[in-house]
Amino acid sequence: MSVTALWPTPVHTGLLSEDDLTRLTPDPALLAGLLPEHHRARDLAWSSRIETWDEGFHAALRHGTGEWFALVVLGARVRERSGSEASGALVLHDPRAGAANVALPGLPWGRPITVPTITGTLVLVPGWLAWQIAPVHADEQRTVLTANTP
């Protein structure tokens, strides 16, 4: 898996292989072993659940409940795009007062980050970051694993 750090705050995104997804779906406890090598979250206990996001689904601002939050897209039914890439996307926000007024991205955190939710997407972020799900377009669906550490 290739991992990209998007900001000074440790936001990691990657794309899991089909083999990883096949093993993870029936056994979410395998998530820790799929996280970036040497990441301290690999040694923590994770609680997880699998969600289905059908057309029209969206989530207003949420927060993780622990030190780390992870999201893995186990499957995505996506129609051919008609101009909007935001359908079902994960949007990360800095919840601190004034963060939206920061002139330079990344200082202290940055502007919202939108991560498309395609099959295999892995997102690992600190639990304090706020996130939301953009509305899922008609005839689309995502199956995702969401997980938190204590």
- Distance from N terminus to C terminus (CA atoms, Å) equals 25 Å
* Name of the CATH first level: Mainly Beta
Number of domains: 1
CATH architecture: Sandwich
Q: In what range is the share of β-strand residues?
A: 35-45%
CATH superfamily: q2cbj1_9rhob like domain
Characterize the structure shown:
This protein has 150 residues and is mostly beta strands. The chain has a single domain, classed as q2cbj1_9rhob like domain (Jelly Rolls, Sandwich), CATH 2.60.120.620. It is 7% helix and 36% strand. The protein has two helices and ten strands; from the N terminus they run E-E-H-H-E-E-E-E-E-E-E-E. The strands form two sheets. It has a six-stranded antiparallel β-sheet with strand order 1-2-8-5-10-3, with no helix packed on it. The protein has a four-stranded antiparallel β-sheet with strand order 4-9-6-7, with no helix packed on it. The two termini are 25 Å apart. The model has no long low-confidence stretch (mean pLDDT 84).
Which features does this protein show?
single chain, 150 residues, mainly beta, Jelly Rolls, 6-stranded antiparallel beta sheet, globular
Compile the SSE list and pairings.
Elements (H helix, E strand, L loop, with lengths): L2 E3 L6 E4 L2 H7 L6 H4 L12 E7 L5 E5 L4 E10 L12 E4 L19 E3 L5 E6 L3 E4 L7 E8 L2
Antiparallel strand pairs: 1-2, 2-8, 3-10, 4-9, 5-8, 5-10, 6-7, 6-9
Brief summary:
The chain has two helices and ten strands, in the order ββααββββββββ.
